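Researcher: Structure for this, please.
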Amino acid sequence: MTDLHPGESSRRSPVVRLLYVGLGLLFVGLGFLGAILPGLPATPFFLLAAFFFARSSTRLYRWLLRSPVAGPLIRDWQRPGGGVRWQVKAVTLVLLPVVIGSSIYLAGLSGWRMLGLIALGLIGATVVLLLPLAKPVPVAPAAPGEAQGEQAQQPAQAEQAPRL
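Model: Predicted structure, token format:
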């Protein structure tokens, strides 16, 4: 992985930058669809969007990191020991068979179509299981005189290139 240095995106040709911005926007759209549609993942699309924005548009990259939907997923992946939260894996692995079973039942699939959908579900489950787990972030104790919920928050690392 190459780190994104300030100004790196401006050294790319305008055509490549435009292509990367377009791909980033496409993946953001797919990521938001994945956040609301069961069976369509959100995390890989947001990670791809971060990858392309980090190499084409600092403004769009920062916007994505500030997003309440995509930001936490990307930051979990980027930080040292990063990966996917166990809750995200658990929800995915529970919903996957439900969505596949519902699709088979509601669409009346049988034979090769049913086996094909089950095979795709198994591939998806394998990918989810192979993703690294995010290590818990230690919470610093409150400073003397500071209320428990008023701890200084760490600044977002908007300049850091995604670990993809």
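Researcher: Any notable elements?
Model: Residues 82-135 form one domain. Residues 1-7, 149-159 have pLDDT under 50 and may be disordered.
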